[in-house]
Design a protein that fits this description.
The protein is α+β, with helices and mostly antiparallel strands. The protein is built from two helices and four strands, in the order E-H-E-E-H-E. Helix content is 28%, strand content 33%. InterPro entries: N-reg_PII (IPR002187), N-reg_PII-like_a/b (IPR011322), N-reg_PII/ATP_PRibTrfase_C (IPR015867).
Length: 99
């Protein structure tokens, strides 16, 4: 079986911004994403239930090129204005054409 190296981008963002970010991720070149409700606490000790609407975790598997576009978009349009978290993991995928 042939595995291809890709990047898993995980972003946790306020639910009210999720749809906008999902569209931006696709516009950056991602072929898809998975969104799910996220619960937790961060450095401000504010739990998701303290914020109206809660948080959403958006994940997408992409190439290095698409990763760079997503990170640039976050840096320019999201990090200066909103509380969100983003991390990137190395992954290997089967069926590379899907990503």
């Amino acid at each position: 079986m042939i595995l291809k190296k890709r990047k898993l981008v995980t972003i946790v963002i306020e639910a009210s911004l999720a749809h906008r970010l999902e569209e931006d991720v696709i516009d950056c070149g991602a072929k898809g994403f998975t969104s799910s409700i996220a619960h937790g606490a961060g450095p401000r000790n504010q739990r998701v239930s303290d914020i109206e609407g809660g948080n959403v975790r958006i994940e997408t598997v992409v190439s290095e090129e698409v990763l760079e576009k997503i990170l640039e978009k976050l840096q320019k349009d999201y990090f200066p204005l909103y509380a969100l978290s983003c991390w990137v993991s190395d992954v290997e995928v089967v069926r590379d054409e899907r990503y």
